[in-house]
Request: fold
Amino acid sequence: MPALLESPPNPITLNEVAAISQSLAEDLAKLQLRTEGFTEADYMTLDGSYFVEYVDGRLQVLPMPESIHQVLAFLLCSMLTDFARRDPGDRVLMAPFKIKLRDGQYREPDVCYMLAVNAHRRMRTHWNGADLIIEVISESNRDHDTITKRREYEINGVPEYWLVDPSHRSISILTLDGSTYAVHGEFRDGQVARSKLLSGFAVDVTRLFDDAASAA
Reply:
């Protein structure tokens, strides 16, 4: 039978969930646990300030990020918010917020961007996909972003995916080439990461990581 709770890469107990977030423990207590797992409706009732994703009846509770992770996500979200002012219909959000990739699968990216042309895919409780997703890699959970989510975003047609790696001070940008991701660029200190999807959006890699280090 499907696991009720799963935290990549190791299982997580309700006591550990409570340690991560008391509000999550309180919300989980409201649910009727069933051997067949959680429904999407169950998942949508979880609206606290924690990171929990949903895949085919299973909840995946993610490790709480370190300060450098949150600062990087905030800086990138701020830069994208400034960029989005060029078109008042564009939107940017920072986790925690639900992104539906398909029926039965939701993720909570660190940062996500939706173009005005796809405004109809933005709901109050979640978005149906996104045009650009940024994940800041957590060293304790690296494969989740670099392998699992990369494949999921690719399969479900997310046009552009940024992987921001604080351990290596690098930004990798993947863009869809047909139905598969191609490497648009891998950027390190001294270089500027430029979006293919968002013409004119660029990030100075050295400045980004230096600013994050000073603020974390």
User: Anything to note?
Assistant: Residues 67-215 form a domain with the tt1808, chain A fold (CATH 3.90.1570.10). Helices lie at 14-20, 22-30, 40-44, 67-84, 142-155, 205-215. Residues 67-84 form the longest helix (18 residues). The first strand starts at residue 5 and ends at 6.
